[in-house]
Amino acid sequence: GAANTHGTNTMIVIRDHLPEAHLPAGVRLYYSGLEEKLEPVFGPEEKALAVLPESIDPARCLVALAESRVVGILALQDRAGSFLDPSYTTMVRHYGTIAATFRTMLLMLLDHKVAPGDLYLDGLVVDPSLRGQGIGSALLTAFEDLAGENGFTTVSLEVIDTNPRARSLYERLGYRQIATHTMGPFSRLFGFRTTHHLTKHLPPAP
């Protein structure tokens, strides 16, 4: 469905997958918004953008389009799979065996075990030039609607300690912290020390 965001004449259309024509742009936006987390695993942008298109499931995300340009992306994960899910074979092909093993281990540190009945938000990125126009909120609303329509009872996400703005947005929307995870010795590598796990109960579907 389409959502007209307030304060802008741009019509935002939310799609429930990343269309093939928009794959490179979607992957670039996702990487640029989550670089702190993704660079240690996939390397600098040029390298990452060669690997990521083969490492995602385009059906497991919500995408905001404005005039056929990708302006926001929300990655999804449930017990059946996730948006970002590179195979070990893909990693070896791009990095060689030793580096692929190390990078896969780093990715496992970021990995999140999804509880039954939970739809997990694995990264939300909005085009920096369009922030504050309601695109993130439109994607979050679509995320919760999608979860409710598909029988999920909770939605959850993690927010890193270096992003207090995002955290206050989620708390305003009714998300509550249930756990904190520390990156331990890897915090230097990733550039953040802790992630806060937030969850929200969905009303039962009518």
How confident overall, as mean pLDDT?
A: 90
Instruction: Describe the global form.
Output: globular
Q: How much helix is in the residues?
A: 25-40%
Largest sheet: 9 strands, mixed
Stretches where pLDDT is under 50 for at least 5 consecutive residues are 1-7
Rg, please?
A: 17 Å
Question: Strand pairing plus helix content: what structural class?
Answer: alpha+beta
Give the N-to-C terminal Cα separation: 20 Å
Instruction: Characterize the quaternary organization of these chains.
Output: single chain
Number of continuous helical runs: 8
| Extended strand count | 9
**Helix-strand sequence:** EEHHHEEEHHEHEHEHE
Description:
By secondary structure, the chain is an alpha+beta fold. 37% of the residues lie in helices and 28% in strands. Strands 1, 2, 3, 4, 5, 6, 7, 8 and 9 form a nine-stranded mixed beta sheet that branches. Helix 6 links the parallel strand 6 (118-126) and strand 7 (154-160). Helix 1 crosses helix 2, helix 2 (35-42) packs antiparallel against helix 5 (97-110) and helix 4 (88-95) crosses helix 5 (97-110). The two termini are 20 Å apart.
Summarize the SSE layout with pairings.
Layout: E1 2-4, E2 11-15, H1 23-33, H2 35-42, H3 45-51, E3 61-66, E4 69-78, E5 81-82, H4 88-95, H5 97-110, E6 118-126, H6 135-149, E7 154-160, H7 164-172, E8 176-182, H8 187-190, E9 194-201
Parallel strand pairs: 6-7
Antiparallel strand pairs: 1-2, 2-3, 3-4, 4-5, 4-6, 7-9, 8-9
Helix pairs in contact: 1-2, 2-3, 2-5, 4-5
